[in-house]
C-alpha cells in the first residue's frame, strides 16, 4: 500500500502533471469569481482564486462515496456541502450561482445535453460553467469510439435508457478488457450497482459540435469563452448568455 501511495505521489510531481494543474489554475483565475459550486470533486478539487467561494456537491456524503469508490480509500475527500444529483441540481434555485465547476464529470452523465442545461439553469446571467473533459485519445477510453452527436441527441430524448446496457458492455470490453464470454456478466453487475463509468467519450471537435447543437436546436443559453487542450484533457469554459433566460431543457425520465 505504501509503495502504491508513493508511486501516486511521484506521478503527481511529474512535470506534465504540474503543467496540467497550472493550466487549470490559470484558467480558473481568469474566469471564476463570486459564489459557486464544484460537482464531484472527490479527492481532486479545483484550486480556485480567493475571490471564488466554493461549495461541494455530490450524490452522497463522504462515507457513501468511500463505499462506492473503494479505490479512493487512502485519498482525502472533500467534505460534501450539498447532497444532490449533479446532473440535475434540483435542490439549487435557478440563477443562484456565479459559477459551476464540473471536472471529469460530463462523461459520467447519461444525458450530457440535459446536464449542461441543468448547470446553465442555476447560473446567474454571465455566470461560468468550467468543464475539464477527458480527451479520449489520451486516456483508458482510447479504444472506444467517439460519442457522436446523433448518440447524444438520442440519449437526451430518452434519458439514456436505450443505450445504458450498451455503454456498460462497451466499458467491460474496451476498458476492463474482458473477453466476450465474461464481459456481459461484468456489465450487468456494473449496471445493477449503478456504477459511474464514462458513458460518453469525446475529443474537442465533437464536444464543440454537441455544444453548438445545444445552442442552436435546444436553445441552451451558452457562449463558449475558452477551449484549452491540457494533456489528457481539454478545458471548456462556457458563459451563460447574459441577455437570455436560464435554460430549462431538463432531463427525460429514464425507464426503470
The largest sheet is:
7 strands, mixed
Reported CATH architecture of the largest domain: 3-Layer(aba) Sandwich
Number of domains: 2
CATH superfamily of the largest domain: Vaccinia Virus protein VP39
- Number of E-type strands: 7
Class of secondary structure makeup: alpha/beta
Per the principal axes of the C-alpha atoms, what is the gross shape?
globular
Helix content estimate? 25-40%
Q: N-to-C SSE series?
A: HHEEHEEHEHHHHEE
Radius of gyration: 18 Å
CA(first)-CA(last) distance:
40 Å
What number is the mean pLDDT? 91
> Biggest sheet: strands side by side, in what order?
3-2-1-4-5-7-6
What's the CATH C level of the largest domain?
Alpha Beta
Total helices: the number is 8
Which blocks of ≥5 consecutive residues have pLDDT under 50? 1-13
CATH topology of the largest domain: Rossmann fold
The percent range for strand residues is: 15-25%
Amino acid at each position: 500500500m505504501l509503495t502504491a501511495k508513493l508511486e501516486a505521489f511521484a506521478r503527481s510531481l511529474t512535470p506534465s502533471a504540474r503543467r496540467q494543474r497550472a493550466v487549470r489554475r490559470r484558467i480558473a483565475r481568469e474566469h471564476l469569481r463570486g459564489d459557486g459550486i464544484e460537482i464531484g470533486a472527490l479527492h481532486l478539487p479545483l484550486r480556485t482564486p480567493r475571490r471564488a467561494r466554493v461549495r461541494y456537491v455530490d450524490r452522497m456524503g463522504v462515507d457513501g462515496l468511500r463505499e462506492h469508490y473503494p479505490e479512493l480509500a487512502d485519498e482525502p475527500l472533500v467534505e460534501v456541502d450539498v447532497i444532490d444529483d449533479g446532473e440535475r441540481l434540483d435542490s439549487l434555485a435557478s440563477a443562484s450561482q456565479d459559477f459551476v465547476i464540473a471536472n471529469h464529470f460530463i462523461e459520467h452523465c447519461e444525458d450530457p445535453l440535459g446536464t449542461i442545461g441543468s448547470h446553465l439553469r442555476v447560473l446567474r446571467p454571465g455566470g461560468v460553467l468550467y468543464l475539464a473533459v477527458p480527451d479520449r485519445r489520451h486516456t483508458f477510453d482510447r479504444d472506444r469510439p467517439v460519442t457522436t452527436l446523433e448518440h447524444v441527441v438520442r440519449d437526451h430524448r430518452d434519458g439514456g435508457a436505450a443505450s445504458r446496457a450498451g455503454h456498460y458492455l462497451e466499458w467491460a470490453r474496451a476498458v476492463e478488457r474482458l473477453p466476450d464470454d465474461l464481459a456481459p456478466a461484468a456489465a450487468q453487475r456494473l449496471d445493477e450497482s449503478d456504477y459511474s463509468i464514462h458513458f460518453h467519450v469525446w475529443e474537442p471537435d465533437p464536444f464543440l459540435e454537441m455544444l453548438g447543437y445545444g445552442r442552436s436546436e435546444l436553445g441552451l443559453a451558452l457562449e463558449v469563452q475558452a477551449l484549452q487542450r491540457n494533456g489528457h484533457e481539454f478545458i471548456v469554459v462556457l458563459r451563460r448568455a447574459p441577455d437570455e433566460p436560464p435554460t430549462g431543457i431538463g432531463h427525460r425520465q429514464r425507464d426503470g
